[in-house]
Amino acid sequence: SLQNGVTSGERTIKGLDFPWIQPD
């Protein structure tokens, strides 16, 4: 699912943790 234009998979690939993508 796209969240703010960035997928959780892309976040994993980039190795970055964006607070604006947190499902919490």
TrEMBL record:
Region feature (Disordered): 1-24
Sequence ranges of Polar residues compositional bias: 1-10
Protein name: Uncharacterized protein
